[in-house]
User: What shape does this take?
Amino acid sequence: MAQLDYMEKRGSGLSRICNETKALEGYKDELKPVFKSTPTQFQTIIFASSDTPNVGDHDGDVSETKLTERQQKILNLIKESPTITGKQMSETLSVSQRTIERDLSALQKKGILKHEGKDNDGKWVISE
Assistant: This one.
């Protein structure tokens, strides 16, 4: 993997994960990442801090939720046309359809957006 430039140096990502986690607001030593390995897999467990704002809860107020510029544009497109398709959004915003799907999924996970009806014949509903 290193010869193909798919990784920097073996194990360098582990220290980076630890350092980035320590830099987060609300970090405590008990939230330190845990690394486990077996002969067939490697697992990293990163714990969320219950003190960190906006982790695990959402009161439905979109204005307080951090959205990317593209996610905000997607919401604006949906407000204009609730039946817009992912393909139409990708063409309008000049990004791949997969990128739109990831953003739509993130918005749905945050409770900001939901889709009603069939995939090819439904509409988007923005939670207010």
